[in-house]
Every structure is written in C-alpha cells, then in structure tokens.
Amino acid sequence: MRESLGGYREYFHSIVGFFVIENHLLYTTNGLVSKVTLEEMWATSVEKVSNVLKTQTSYCTDSGLIQEIKRLIMLFSNTLTNYGYNISHLTQALLEIREHYTEVLTQRCFHEFQEIFKEDNYHPLQVVNLTEYASVVAAFPFKDPNLEKSAFPRRFPFSSMVPKVYKQVKEFVRSSLWYTEDLNLTQTKIDEMIQKSTNLLLTGTLSGCLTTLIQKPSVGLLELIQITLNTNYLECTNIYLEEFITSVTKSSVKDESYKAELQGKSMFKDARAEAEEQIYEKLKAKIDESFDLASYDWTLNEPEGRASDYIIDLVAFLQSTFLAFTNLPLKVATTACAAACQHINRKLMYMILGDEDVRQVSLGALKQLDLDLIQCEQFASSEPVKGVDSTLLIECLTDVRQLLDLFNQCDFSAYFHDFGERTSKYPRVTPASAIKLLEKVIKCCFSESAKLIKIKRKF
Asked: Contact, 368 vs 298, CB < 8 A?
C-alpha cells in the first residue's frame, strides 16, 4: 500500500464490499444480521482502518500520491456514509494525514529553496525584451515606472531568487489549501491551518535556508550585498502573500476576530541583519588579508615617497566594493564604511604597538606609515558611498593619526602641556601607547636616543 494507489484501492474495495453486503443483508433478510452487531463490527473496523491509513501514509514522501490517497479516502468515506455508517474516525484520520502532507510539502520546498539559491548568480536580474520583463512582473509584485520606461536590457534591483522564492511560497499555499477541500471545515479553521503552515514555512524552512546561504564561506562580499537587497524585496512581499491567501481562501486574513498574521516580515528582517553582519565580517577579513601582505622595513631611514603597494591595492578594492553599496540603506552603508576604517585603524595600531615581532621602529618607518595612512584618509574623505559622512570615516582613523603626528612632529611638549585638557591635540594617545612606541624608536634611532630617553623620563 505504501507506494501504490492500487494497494489502497484493493484495501478499500474489500472493506466496502463486506460492509455493503452486510448492510444489504440487514435490510433484506429476517434476523440474519442484527443492527447492533453490524454497528459494533463497523466501530471496531473503522478505528483499525483509520490507524492503518495514518501509518501507511506516514511513509509516503510524494505529495502528489498523498493527494490521490486523500481522494480515495474521501470516496471511501462518502460511499459508507450513504449506507449509514459513522465516518468520524476517517475524518479525524484525514486531518492527521494533512499534517504529514504539510511536512512533505515543506520538505519539497526546502529542496526547491536550496536549488533556487544554488542556481542564482546573485547579480541583478536582467531581461532583454518585453516578454521576459512581463514574465517577471507577472510572477512578482514589483513596479518601477523608471524601469518600465528604460531601454532594454533592463535590470531589476533583485536577483533571480526573489521571484522564484515568492512563486514557490504561493505554490505551497495552493497545495496546502487543496487538501482542505471537501473536509467540511469552517472558514476560520481553514485560515488557521493555511496561515500556520505558511508561517512555519517562512520562519522555519526558508529562514533556515537563508541562514545556511548567508553563512556559507564560499559566499563572497558582493553576493552578500545582493542577498541583503533581496531580503528587502522579499520582506515587502509579506502583505502580498496575505492578500493572496485572502483571495484563494475567500476569507479575510486581517479579520479582527482572528489575530494571526504572516510572520515573513520579521523573518526577512532577521535574515537581512545577519547578512549585514556577515558583510562587516567579510570586509574585515579582506582587510586582514591585505595586511598579511604588508612587508615593512622597520629600520627604514627614509620613506619610499608613496604609499605601500598593499595599501594602494586595499583602497582600490574598497572603492570598487563600496560602489555596490549604493542601493543599500544608508545606515548599512555607513556602518560598513565605518567598520572598514575602524578595522584599518586597529590593524595599523597593532603593527606599531601590538606586534611582538616588531621590537624597534625607525622614524623613517613611521613616516612611511604616515604615507599609508594619508592614502586611507583620502579614501575616507572621498565619500566612498554617496550620503555617507566623510567626517565620521576620518574620525575612525584618529587613533593612529594622532600617534603618528605626535612622533613624526616630535610634538611631545604640546602633548605634556595639554594632557588631559579639552584642547589637547592628542586626546587619543594614551601614555602607555606613547611609552611603548617610544621604547621601540629608542632601540632603532641611536642618534636621537639621548633626546628620546629624556622625553620618556617625563612620563
């Protein structure tokens, strides 16, 4: 029976045949079959039949087959109802089979979501003619007057996963609703069932797939940016899905007597927040990779006269990457830019103060670091993303800027004079940091050692 409709048909035929004949004998013979005995036989049998059906269908992983089995159970139930048999056990069995049917649908969606994410190239969806454009807007509720007027090829702001996911969720709703037909359920009960299963699909299955996608090490920075944009558009579909359920169930999702609503909006917000966090982490990782290529001569007499190659390459990478931030919310773009500048600041400070392998530092090396920092400051002041406050980005580099200025200008008299004052030129330079770098410079700069030792004694 598990994998064959024929097995179910034979099973139902044998049961129907027996009880139809018994019913016929009840009404056409004199005392051959008693009503009490027949009712007892049916009560025992229908409970066993219901248990068999629930057990057998629980092994079925094909939603189409379960639909056919449900149709046979309905025919079986209606036939026996016409002969006066109580089918409440079968009705309950159908409702329990529906739970398994929903699980099968959900599992199918899980694989579909995975395939959709695998096939997406995470670039804006491009269409080359009106037919392709009409196909996308017919499948997904998106309107942009400017895009409608533009020449082909046209680019949507989202990638292919967005309309495909939306379509898959709608198919899930339709398939879920199909099972409730002819079960004599109230409209409220149908609403509850459909919304509960859809919410579980969104907050469980789809959410889990998105999390797995976002956390994949192979997903790059630009892909994460596109995924973040995609979640914005998927979040907006929540209201359209509610309206879709309203139309197919012929009911009102927002009925005041029923408070449940689809929870896709909050789920997509959570997914977007996770993607944004991954963007910040990927940026930091890329900066780490760049700094791993740094090769300073810490005993350098004179700077090279230009920024180091690794800094030039890093700035070029950040400039090209931040071009993709244009369509992101300004808050996200600002946070990403600030995170990048803060991380550069930390990496430079670590090289100067924290790296135990750097035991001595020449003034020439500090001047070379100054050239590298200038390159970063120029990037920060260039408004890498439109609308981002350049002052904020430059502020993120203040720790290393003040430390380098203090040493390159040998401005210790001002440092000591204004220390702790609001007007201090070097409020970010702590005595501990100054002493640590001073000790490294003393080891390298023999000609200046006496002067520097005197400065150290003042701390």
From this structure: no
- Buried residues in 428-443 as b, exposed as e (16+ CB within 10 A): ebeeebbeebbebbbe
Q: How far apart are CA 272 and CA 401, in angstroms?
A: 34
Q: Other CB atoms closer than 10 Å to residue 456's CB: what's the count?
A: 16
Which residue, 302, 294, 299, is CA-closest to 368? 302
Residue 413: its H or E element: helix 412-418
Please state, as a whole number, how many other Cβ atoms lie within 10 Å of the Cβ of residue 328.
20
d(CA 361, CA 299): 6
Say what angle helices 35-57 and 5-28 make with each other, to 10 degrees: 170
Neighbours of 302 (CB within 10 A): 11
Residue that is written with structure tokens 């204004």 in the block: 418
Contacts of 231 (CB under 8 A, 6+ apart): 210, 268, 269, 271, 272, 275
- Which are the contacts of 31, defined by CB distance < 8 A and separation ≥ 6? none
**Token code pair at residue 21:** 């004949």
What pLDDT digit, counting tens, does each position of 388-441 carry? 889 999 999 999 999 999 999 999 899 888 888 888 999 999 999 999 999 998
Phi, then psi, of 127 in degrees rounded to 5: -125, 145
Quote the tokens at residue 224: 């994460």
* Peptide bond preceding 153 in cis form (omega within 30 of 0): yes
